[in-house]
Amino acid sequence: MGATSGTNGATTEAAAKDGDRRLGRRALLIGGAAAAVGTAVLARDELSRLWWRLPGVEKPRVAGAVDFRGARWVAASPANYRRADRPDDYRIDRVVIHVTQGGYASAVKVFQDPAHGAAAHYIVRKDGRITQLIRELDVAFHAGNREYNERSVGIEHEGFVEDPSSFTDAMYTASARLTAAICGRYGIPVDREHVIGHVEVPGTDHTDPGRHWDWERYLGLVRRARA
Ligand SMILES: [Zn+2]
């Protein structure tokens, strides 16, 4: 955020050096498989998807990069999250499900507003399109509870808790794929203890996702997407 082209250049160089170091680590980790990958360029590409598995390595931040393939990147205001290095500094063991109480555009707008003080990592639209606003390695202010912010990934869903028509098939399917990928990435069990609603965060006065959110259906879709 706010990086000049000068600092970008420096970051790219640092990342390149880092990449070489990680290549060594990766070779150590998976042994002969690295040789089979072929060119260093291809290996580097693999690495960009594997970085979260390498403990103690500072993660590269590439402008516009997303953690979920197919998600569209729209940056939240830096005032609405805290830079971190998860899962190395904080273990991620929860996914928190939210409903925006409004449309997609207005949710994006408030997450970009530094005065709002809150934002989630992702928003899922009615049509199933997913937008990522905060990297998973950062702590988004979405749960209203510091410990839960630090340990979770927050997913907003466009719509209203009192309107069952908010929750479309496309939304359930897309969101379940996203949650399945997050659970896979961090080893989070797919159950109601670890995939929770905002309403279940200790100390919250929020009610989302509300009584119309079909948890049984959702967890079933997440499990199917995992398999
Ligand atoms: Zn919420």
UniProtKB/TrEMBL annotation:
Q: What is the lineage of its organism?
A: Bacteria, Bacillati, Actinomycetota, Actinomycetes, Kitasatosporales
State any GO BP term from the record: cell wall organization
| The N-acetylmuramoyl-L-alanine amidase domain, residue ranges | 81-210
Q: Name one GO molecular function term.
A: N-acetylmuramoyl-L-alanine amidase activity
Name the record gives this protein: N-acetylmuramoyl-L-alanine amidase
Species source reads Streptomyces diastatochromogenes
Reaction(s) this enzyme catalyzes, per UniProt: Hydrolyzes the link between N-acetylmuramoyl residues and L-amino acid residues in certain cell-wall glycopeptides
Q: Is the Transit peptide keyword given for this protein?
A: no
Q: Which Gene3D superfamilies match?
A: Peptidoglycan recognition protein-like
Query: What keywords sit in the KW lines?
Result: Cell wall biogenesis/degradation, Hydrolase
Question: TM segments?
Answer: none
